[in-house]
Amino acid sequence: MTNQVEFTDRPVRVNARLDSPLSRWLWLVKWILAIPHYVVLFFLWMAFAVVTVIAFFAILFTERYPRVLFDFNLGVMRWSWRVSYYACDALGTDRYPPFSLGEEPDYPARLDIAYPERLSRGLVLVKWWLLAIPHYLVIGFFLGGAHLGWWSGGLIALLTVIAAVILAFTEKYPGDLFDLIIGLNRWVLRVWAYAALMTDTYPPFRLDLGGSETATPEERA
Predict the structure, then answer these.
(1) Domain spans of the chain?
(2) Higher pLDDT residue, 152 or 115?
């Protein structure tokens, strides 16, 4: 499994591939088509919360995140990322997301989190609320804190709508806009993983643009 790889520089890796061609108008109804996923994810995220609480005490007493619990929560995050990539937070593919907690390596949106062999007992007490507060302020703007005229949604949703309108009129998804949207989503997912106690590596205050995160900066140079 990919999440068994030791990502020493970046334990959370988000990759996305922009499919082509994309339907000019399917984006108008993707959120409706994704409703079955939203129903399932509602219950999965309730389970995610319970599992995270159990993991909290496991880390506090053993310094370990039980692997079966880690894999479940990673699966929920992967499922959510695929659905959001399809339906609302990128619109980068017309491929319907699978109903799966698995890795799904052929799907154009992927999330990998390296399993930590040990986690800090001290950090588990503060990282999900106190240490993550600066990031919460930032991603709040990304997800739902932007107020630009009549628009009261988040920056990611606003940019995605702009990309969809351009797609509708030109049949092309702007590449630079796609890179920015994925960079914003990448920031959010890194914070989610940190707040869910899945890594002790503090998320960088950095907007890593583009769909690929498989290579290190040195390898990409």
Answers:
(1) 2-214
(2) 115
pLDDT band at 213 (very low <50, low <70, confident <90, very high): confident
Cα distance between residue 160 and residue 173, in whole Å: 10
End-to-end CA distance of the chain: give it in Å, rounded.
Answer: 27
CA dihedral 96, 158, 207, 166 (to 10 degrees): 70
pTM: 0.90
Q: Quote the tokens at residue 208.
A: 């890593």
CA max distance for the chain = 57
Task: Give the rounded percent of residues in the chain with a pLDDT score beyond 70.
Answer: 89
Distances (CA, A) of 106 to 31, 85, 95, 127, 201: 22, 14, 11, 33, 28
Question: pLDDT tens digits for 171-210?
Answer: 999 999 999 999 999 999 999 999 999 999 999 999 999 9
